[in-house]
Amino acid sequence: MIDIQSVSKSFVTRDADPVHALNEVSLEIYDNEFFTLLGPSGCGKTTLLRLIAGFEAPSSGVIRIAGSNVAALPPQKRPVNTVFQSYALFPHMSVAENIAFGLEMQNAPKSLIDERVREALEMVRLEGFATRRPAQLSGGQQQRVAVARALAPKPSVLLLDEPLSALDLKLRKGMQSELKRLQRETGITFVLVTHDQEEALAMSDRIAVMRSGDVLQVGTPRDIYDNPQDRFVADFIGESNLLPGAALGRDPAKTIVVRPEHIVVSPASDGARGHARGAVSAITFLGSDTLYEVVLEEGARLHSRSRGGAALATGDMVVVDWARDVERELAN
Amino acid sequence: MTGAKPFDWRHTPGLSAYTALIFVFFYAPLLILVIYAFNSSRLVTVWAGFSFKWFVAVANNNSIRDAAFNSVIIAIVATIASTAIATAGALALERGRLRFGRSAATALIAMPLVVPEIVVAITTLIFFSGLGMHHGLINLMIAHTVFCIPFALLPIQARLRDMGGTLEEAGRDLYADEWRLFRRVTLPLLLPAISAGAIMAFVVSLDDFLISMMVSSAGSTTLPVYIYGMMRLGVTPEVNAISTILLAVSIVFVAAALLVGRRNRFA
């Protein structure tokens, strides 16, 4: 569907050296998938989205949408619609006029426009709001109008630029499943940009993790969570213990990655061998789980998260253990 | 430091008296001018009873009527031309592909606002005579259009900058070509600023004396230039009457501008 081949983008600034926002990024986004570009701010995810939308032109590389090179196409000629972070609803138009805009610009017949507007309003559950102005709506409602406006022309790809970042937590959770439902119902390819790894894990079919202009790893949420191929990915997605090989008596050139929930902490007096010994330095009660911080004898620090948990106290000598197949070995 | 109240400018002693004084200073001369426009005496400073006769005299004075007509026609043409040019200029400066020299261009356009008007007036005069252009009203229209541009440009440019480019990106994203984007998105959102710029241009043009004085010739006298001519023969109540009319027109305009601005506020 969207084929991105060694795309680079640098911005010329007035005085300093050019800023490299993307370095030779290659990605393939499939039909009907919910794809997420995930990374911290400044990683180039929004730039990549703007290149797909056509607001910026790549410095080099090729972008193909549905097989055709879109390099020469301005945004209005691409079968792509965007949900903007700030929603960018037209303040001088009613909700219905906002949603009708894209179809009108495509010179769709009036009857089709009316039908699609009605459909779109229904889809985002805003029937009865057609004649309101955007300023008369709450943030969550504006967000849904922005989604309806972008979906009404039935694009092949919907781009979403941090669409949930302005909503409060409860609304955000609701919108996550709402967007997921819309993606399934419409069968349109969604490309979401976010810095929120939980959001990415919850919504996406596949995720591309980005950092400073590079794509570090692409995969399903489970794949990325279970098999991080990079220290940054391991650390950024969920919580991870990054243990120097030396601390476990192994190859010092490697880092061992273990998720806190996979680590079992047991009193040293039990006689278990485990991977290492240490002392409990902090215990945090999290409700259903308990978080133990353990300082290993070799100096490294790790977290273990367990349900219920053994009766341990701060200062206890412990043995930490985990199944060999849940750990990942990465080069330093 | 318990009893000490924090400083609050709202409670400065004498603030209200001071404010009242400023208003008196602003508006007393205007008020007196308007009152004496209705004075039946020929003397400007002696009240002799209420009368409309100076307004009638103004209305019957062909030279005043011609001058007023010139002023209005010049102001209308200059307003339309300068607002159109300013809108295009503001779009070019804020949305164009210009990468460097943007601030230099803005400064150059705004320069007539800070250059002494007498300098502008003289250079305009020299410019026209150098070209051998002696077209009366047309010269005035061109001169007024030019000095009205910065007044119209600044509010439009400020509005474009406040708007940011995202709404226009959204329009493009939704398949609008450049022309329809302008008509359906940019122009409606700019309209309050364009009206503000146009009203500024109109008032500045109607008001202008120095440049008109230099550029106008027989047959193309504007109202302020004509009034100045009358004043040289002494201040007559007719001057009060014309000024009162000008004042009323200005008030109507400013009120209209405020109403338009209010109706176009979306937030």
Automatic annotation (TrEMBL), chain A:
One of its GO terms (biological process) is putrescine transport. Belongs to the ABC transporter superfamily. Spermidine/putrescine importer (TC 3.A.1.11.1) family. Gene3D superfamilies: 2.40.50.100, P-loop containing nucleotide triphosphate hydrolases. It catalyses: ATP + H2O + polyamine-[polyamine-binding protein]Side 1 = ADP + phosphate + polyamineSide 2 + [polyamine-binding protein]Side 1. It comes from Mesorhizobium kowhaii. This is Spermidine/putrescine import ATP-binding protein PotA. GO terms for molecular function: ABC-type polyamine transporter activity; ATP binding; ATP hydrolysis activity. Residues 2-237 form the ABC transporter domain. One of its GO terms (cellular component) is ATP-binding cassette (ABC) transporter complex. Keywords: ATP-binding, Cell membrane, Membrane, Nucleotide-binding, Translocase, Transport. The gene is potA. Pfam families: ABC_tran, TOBE_2. Its EC number is 7.6.2.11. Part of the ABC transporter complex PotABCD involved in spermidine/putrescine import. Responsible for energy coupling to the transport system. The complex is composed of two ATP-binding proteins (PotA), two transmembrane proteins (PotB and PotC) and a solute-binding protein (PotD). PROSITE patterns: ABC_TRANSPORTER_1, ABC_TRANSPORTER_2.
Automatic annotation (TrEMBL), chain B:
Keywords: Cell inner membrane, Cell membrane, Membrane, Transmembrane, Transmembrane helix, Transport. GO terms for biological process: transmembrane transport. PANTHER family: PUTRESCINE TRANSPORT SYSTEM PERMEASE PROTEIN POTI, SPERMIDINE_PUTRESCINE TRANSPORT SYSTEM PERMEASE PROTEIN POTC. The keyword Transferase does not apply. It is found in: Cell inner membrane; Cell membrane. It is a multi-pass membrane protein. Required for the activity of the bacterial periplasmic transport system of putrescine and spermidine. Belongs to the binding-protein-dependent transport system permease family. CysTW subfamily. This is Spermidine/putrescine transport system permease protein PotC. Its main location: membrane. Residues 68-257 form the ABC transmembrane type-1 domain. It comes from the Bacteria. One of its GO terms (cellular component) is plasma membrane. InterPro entries: Bact_Polyamine_Transport (IPR051789), MetI-like (IPR000515), MetI-like_sf (IPR035906). Signal peptide: none annotated. The chain crosses the membrane at residues 15-36, 43-60, 72-93, 105-131, 137-156, 185-203, 241-261. Pfam families: BPD_transp_1.
